[in-house]
Design a protein that fits this description.
transport; 53% helix; transmembrane
Length: 111
């Protein structure tokens, strides 16, 4: 809405067109076109429309940044909580190329 109103105000304000409508003068102003045909709010300037658009763009960029940062923090918190809930597991790896020791009760423990 603000973009179109700003565009129309920029294009039509200050211009005068030849009018061929019955009951009107020979000319029609751009303000009349905006007010009567396009029904644009003429109470404020086209610059207000521009500043509103810039404000909306900044607001949405900041909102997007906040959402991204909250999501990043949330992922870290979830990762920490899920890691704390897991039980530590012991992994035993067997070397398939190692040959067994000779003897019945001769085990080697590596620390």
């Amino acid at each position: 809405m603000y973009a179109y109103q700003g565009l129309f105000k920029n294009e039509f304000e200050g211009l005068v067109y030849p009018g061929e409508v019955v009951g009107r003068s020979n000319t029609i102003s751009g303000e009349e076109i905006l007010r009567d045909i396009w029904q644009v709010e003429m109470a404020y300037s086209k610059w207000v429309d521009l500043f509103v658009l810039i404000g909306m763009a900044l607001f949405y960029r900041i909102l997007f940044l906040v959402i991204i940062k909250i999501t990043e923090k949330g992922k870290n918190i979830i990762a920490v909580l899920s890691a704390a809930r897991r039980k530590p597991s012991i992994q035993i790896m067997e070397n398939p190329i190692a040959t067994p020791l000779h003897g019945d009760n001769n085990y080697v423990v590596a620390l």
